[in-house]
Amino acid sequence: MSVGGLWSPANGWCPLNVLQKVDVRLVSEEACFRSYGYMVTPRMLCAGYRSGEKDACQGDSGGPLVCQENSGRWFLAGVVSWGKGCGRADYYGVYTRVTKLTGWIKEHISGHG
């Protein structure tokens, strides 16, 4: 998984002019629930590392979480949404789960293209 954004931990969190990316791992629903409890819904997924360190951060909201299939094809799996701080141990990044919203997306883009 890769996440894109414009923020970086250099002397604190500061905006950059160059798009950044970080590779993160999807985590189980159970691990996500352990971090956030009932704040996480079926329309969300978590990614990152238990040790923290790599994560999306403030300013990255709305950015893509993309995955690569074995065929090499990339697809949008999630959209950066929220989390507890940035790269904190035991707290994963939370993303909107795109597969749960494909019907809504198709409904709202039909006739606009």
UniProtKB/TrEMBL annotation:
Record's subcellular location: Endoplasmic reticulum; Golgi apparatus; Secreted, Extracellular space
EC number, as in UniProt: 3.4.21.4, 3.4.21.69
One cellular-component annotation, GO: Golgi apparatus
Peptidase S1 domain sequence ranges: 1-110
Catalytic activity entry: Degradation of blood coagulation factors Va and VIIIa; Preferential cleavage: Arg-|-Xaa, Lys-|-Xaa
GO molecular function annotations of the record: serine-type endopeptidase activity
Primary location group: endoplasmic reticulum
UniProt entry tagged with the keyword Hydrolase: yes
GO biological process: blood coagulation; proteolysis
CDD domains per record: Tryp_SPc
Pfam family of the protein (one): Trypsin
Alphabetical keyword list: Blood coagulation, Disulfide bond, Endoplasmic reticulum, Glycoprotein, Golgi apparatus, Hemostasis, Hydrolase, Protease, Secreted, Serine protease
Physiological role: Protein C is a vitamin K-dependent serine protease that regulates blood coagulation by inactivating factors Va and VIIIa in the presence of calcium ions and phospholipids. Exerts a protective effect on the endothelial cell barrier function.
Family matches, as PANTHER family: SRCR DOMAIN-CONTAINING PROTEIN, TRYPSIN-RELATED
UniProt name for this protein: Vitamin K-dependent protein C
Source organism (scientific name): Oncorhynchus kisutch (Coho salmon)
Encoding gene (name): TMPRSS6
